[in-house]
Structures are given as structure tokens and as C-alpha cells.
Amino acid sequence: EAFLYSSHCGVAAEQLKNNPRHKAYLEGVSLCQLKKLHVLLRGHLRGESLAESLGKIEQEQNIDPEEDMNKLDDEELAKRKRIMDELFEKNRKKKDDPDFVYDIEVEFPQDEQLESCGWDGESCEEV
């Protein structure tokens, strides 16, 4: 079951957020938070503990780096892409962040022996 990002949870969260009666109260609440809340409530109604529901949310938000995404169907692939986009935005440094640095310079140690990759040592004529 697509747990956190199921269309049912997303639709319910959007309807709640866009409802004129609740709009003023939920203006500062993100759609993602409302989806999580909906998942927690559904889990509670199914008899799941809070820890079980939170564990499913956590599992649903993680990306397995070993997973072959070429084997996923379009819906599952879109879900993984949404998760990666959210993680990127969450971790991205913005100009307004207090620890933002515009131009980072890194010096790499030169005393180590550099290995050739093989492909970069051939001339263009050999190819």
C-alpha cells in the first residue's frame, strides 16, 4: 500500500486545507504535515500504535540507495522523485540561511598518489 503519499491521503489533506471554514487556521500548516496527520489518524482508526504509524511514515520517506529504480512503475518512480525533491529542498542552503556561503573553496591534498582511471589516459586518436 502506498502509505504516506496515497492519493486518498493527499486528496483529504488538500480538501481540509482548502476548506473555507479551516483555511484561516491551516494557512501556516504545510500540505505535507496535513498528509502525515491524516496518515496518523487512519492508523489510529485501524488500531495501530503511534510508534507503528510513525515507523511507516519514516519508512515511506526514505530512499534505498541500492534500489533499482529502473524496475519501478511510473507511480512508484514518481513517489521516489517527490521524496528526493523534498529532501533536496529541505537540505538546500539558501541565500537567506545564516550559514550560507557563496563561494566555497576546497583544497585537495596533493601529496597522495593519483590513480589513473584508464579511460582518461588514452588519446583521441586511439578511440
TrEMBL record:
Subcellular location per the Swiss-Prot or TrEMBL entry: Cytoplasm, Cytoskeleton, Cilium basal body; Cytoplasm, Cytoskeleton, Microtubule organizing center, Centrosome, Centriole; Cytoplasm, Cytoskeleton, Spindle pole
Report the principal subcellular site.
Answer: cytoplasm
Q: Which domain of life is it from?
A: Eukaryota
InterPro entries reported for this sequence: CEP19
Which Pfam family, an example, fits this chain?
CEP19
Q: Which UniProt keywords apply?
A: Cell projection, Cilium, Cilium biogenesis/degradation, Cytoplasm, Cytoskeleton
Q: Which GO terms describe its biological process?
A: microtubule anchoring at centrosome; vesicle targeting, trans-Golgi to periciliary membrane compartment
GO CC terms of this entry: centriole; centrosome; ciliary basal body; cytosol; nucleoplasm; spindle pole
Does the entry feature the keyword Cytoplasm, yes or no? yes
Family membership = Belongs to the CEP19 family.
- Per its record, how is this protein called by name? Centrosomal protein of 19 kDa
Q: Which organism is it from?
A: Coturnix japonica (Japanese quail)
Question: Which classification does the entry list for the species?
Answer: Eukaryota, Metazoa, Chordata, Craniata, Vertebrata
Query: What gene makes this protein?
Result: CEP19
